[in-house]
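Hello again, I could really use a second opinion on something today. I've been staring at a protein lately and its backbone has me curious. Please have a think about how the structure follows from the sequence. I owe you a coffee for this, so here goes:
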Amino acid sequence: MLGEFQETLLQSVKAFQSTELVMNKYENVLQHLDSGIMLFDTEGTMTFINVRMAKLLELPRQSLIGCNLAQLLKHPGISHYKRKKIIGLYRETIVYRKRNFEFMDEYGRYWLATITYSDEMDGDYLVSVKDVSEFKQIEETAYQNDKLAMLGKISAAIAHEIRNPLTAIRGFIQLLKPHLVQLGRDEYAQIILSEIDRANDIIYEFLNSSKPSTPQKSVISVASLLKEVVLLTESEALMKGCEISIKEVAPQMSIAVDVKQIKQVLLNMIKNAMEAIEEVGSEHSGQIEVKAELEEKYVNISIRDNGKGMDKAMLAKLFSPFFTTKEKGTGLGLSVSYRIIKNHRGTIFADSIKGAGTIFVISLPLAT
């Protein structure tokens, strides 16, 4: 009888230990997921939080277990920015009963928060947060490509509709030119013809900018390319109180590019940098640094300024067609630059801090 009891007790202990091992295993899996997880019970008390979520909140895990929402918001270590996002999450998911809430953190990363509460959860609330920055970037790139394609079609239609009447007007002015010469007003004809030609040039530039032509590549030294671009902008920079400097570039570093198109991109970047510095004020000492570095099979050309900078929201729309912060800007310069670099199988990236300046990094394949 005693032997049977001991055997039953031993089996119970083994079953308990086995269950505990399984639970520890599952908890270990949850702790190391790439998604942040929090679990609240029916009373609103946090009963579980994994390592990832604690890192996102930038708070110690042990200080969070047992907290309710109010205590979490009053935690001495939580930032004001994160407090606002948690309140937004609560409002969207609990008050408005939405299952998902998308937001951007203070570092410019995109996150998708999902809340699960159902009968299967026994009254508990499961909050999970996943980094969706890569998916957002892919989505933004696809959206931008669609807009650029539409822009190309619109540009072609506009160019066709405007060029035809301009050609007719130009022809009639040439026919009328002898009569204007007789009246001593031949300069009128010349002014009209030159203005029509200028309008045609503007249309051509707009059409070309919205749909850059296939690159006509040739091998060029990065050092000589940057030197030439800086020489072209140096005098204008001095007039605007800016100083442009080039960090030493290895002479053997070469790229195969359409020189005209890449110059257009670099000149646009430097011009933007000068305007950003100019907006800070005349007393500000403007600095523009141009640099090229080798990274595996790519050359990273960077243009850094100490201008007014941009916030994360503005930075996210930077390469979108027609987006501009300038009063007289078209919003085409950076979207065209994006397309040109993409056509060269390269990438273009921007980072900025409001009030501290901006850096653009253009990555292009090395010449083989």
